[in-house]
Structure formats: structure tokens, C-alpha cells
Structure prediction request, 398 residues.
Amino acid sequence: MKEQGQRKKGKGYIRAAMLAVLTLVLAKTVIGVGENAVETALVGYGDVKISESTVGVIVRKEAVIKAPISGSIIYAAKENQRIPVGTKLLEMKKETINEELTGKYDEINQRLQALQSADSSRAVPAEIERSIKEGLENIAFLLNEGNLAAAYSQKERLNREINISLAASTTGLEREELLRQKEELDNIIEGGIKAEFAPFSGVPVYTLDGYEELLHPENLEEVVPSKVAPAKAKKVDLTGELEAGQPVMKVVANHEWYAVCSLSEDFAEGLGKGSVVYLEVSEEQTHSVRAVVRDKIEQEEGPVVVFEAKDYFPGLYEARNVEMTVVKGKYSGLVVPLSAITEKDGEYLVEVLDADKTITKKVLLKGHDGISAVVEQTGSSPAIKLYDKVVLGKERVD
Prediction:
């Protein structure tokens, strides 16, 4: 019994030793697999943007239109509709100018125009007087000759001439009186009604934020974005009484806007005068506007870039501090993680996992945003293709 117990105990030691060895082998196997495992990503198709978000200060070519006199507005151009230079923007009248006064003024002008029109169809008064004198002489001669029929005919003609002369005299008196009344009204109305006209073609806007006369295209290099505090645009009430010199509206040029933006050193690098970018502004939807670099200024807070845009996008007529994305480049094509690309002897390479082996493929690097890259086939075989599994590395291409 004792020997049998010792044999069982010996077998137990053997099993424990074998289990320990098996556990060690499995552990090494698992560790080996972990050490040899590779991380991959699928090649997809998409876009990569080289961009940076910032807050741009909008500077416009704009003119503030002020009330020329104290009073009320009797006409205002429609808001947000393009108008040519010289278009009447607003017309105002003083409180002393009422409808009765302006109605009387219009009535006098209309009557004077009617008299002028009537005069153009009448004979000249001097000619009428000469005709009457000649007519009287002819009647006297015919009576002396005893030609009564001819004298009667001459008398009838003379009556017509006299009637015309009297009418002309009456018209002259009426015109004189009308001109006197018009002069009196002119003295009353003078300066009582005044209008303002568009200094350039543009769009009337009824909101003002106070920066209109501080920020303008002539002082772009002086604009410091961080010091332009957000200001809420206020709409002017055009229905009430206004004081002379009070801002009423502004005219914004159709195609002359600027965005002054602070950018990082890295992103601003390579942006020079004339460089083309796209400014994206997102509201309910994203609007993209083409712009060019007008100037790049080094300020204490870093590089400040002035962009000039000719196209319209919502917000440029009124907004001042606008959140936007400056897109320096946009590339479309096969997208891979930047960490999957290595550079060797001036060529870009990716490792593609194929079953239990990897294949090196050459690619052309179109552009990257620091995380993802857009690549193209080089024309050499094997070529990269959609849904390839690229092996991710630890180093990134600059």
C-alpha cells in the first residue's frame, strides 16, 4: 500500500511538471505572436484638406450714409439688392414740409408746364399787336372805299386777333402770379427735402456695427485680429424721426471683401502674395469662397494674412468676426494613413499585407494633412489599389 501511494505521488509530480512546461510553451507562443503581429489599415478613397480654423475679421469697401437733414425718411432703397452708382438711396424731409405744401408745389409746377405747352402753339404777342394795327387800317380804308362787305370780313378777322391777344395777356398774368407763388414755396421748401445717392455700385445694408469707418481697405496692415472685439450689428429704425448726421445705412461694394486672419507659423509658411486658398464658412451649410493672399504681415501674435475675395458668401455684408477654415490645399484620391508611408532614396513606399507576406509598393505622394495622405499609383508594378491592407509604421513622412 505504501509503495502504491508513492507511485501515485510520483505520477502527480510528473503531471505538474508537464503542465508547467506546456504553460511556458503556450506563453512563449502567445508572446511570439504578439511580437510578430502587425497593425494594418485599408486603403480608401476620399479627400484630404490642408487647412486651419481661425476667426477672420471681415473688412469691406463700404460707405456709411448719414441723414442729410433732421426729419423723416420718405424714400429708402431696398435692402440687399444690387444697385448702380448714382442710385438714390434715401430721401428725407423736414417736419415743416407737409403734404399740403408739397401738393401745392406740384400743382403750381404742373400749371406752369401747361401754360408753357399752350404758349408753344400761339403766335408771338408782338406779331398779334402788329396784325391788329394793320387790321384797323384796312377797315378804315375799306369804309372810305365803300366796300362794306370787305370791311365786315376784316372786322371779324380782327375780333379773332383781339381775343387771342387778350388770352395771351391773361396767360401772362397767370404765369406771373404762379411764378411768384412758386418763389415763395421755394423759400419755404429750400433745404426741407434732401436726398443721398450711392457713391459706388453696391448693396444697401440697414445694419451697422460701428467698425464701418474704422476698418477699411486702406488700413488693412494695421488690423490686429485679436484686438477687434466682436460687435453686434444693429438695425436702424427707418420709420421714426432722425437727426441730421445720424447714420442711416451703408453701401457695401459688390465684389471687394477682405478677411484678416491670424495663422500658425507652420500653416502660414509657403503662403505668399497671390497664393490661392479657399475660405470655408459653415452656417446651415458650408460655403466655400476662392480668395488670394493680398499680404502677409508679421505681428507680435504671429503671422497675420490678408485674403482678398471677389465672390459673395452669406455673412460678408453684415458679419465682422467670422469663424472660418482656411484651406491651403485639397487633394482627392487613394487615402492611406501617413504612418504607412516611408521614404527611401527620394521615393515613397508602402508595405501591403498579402496573406502571410508583405509586398512593397511605390506610390506618388500628392499631399497630406499630418495624419492622412493622398497617394497615386506610380505606373510601376505592383501598384497600390483600393482596399489594400497597408502596414502601419511608427515614423511619419514630413
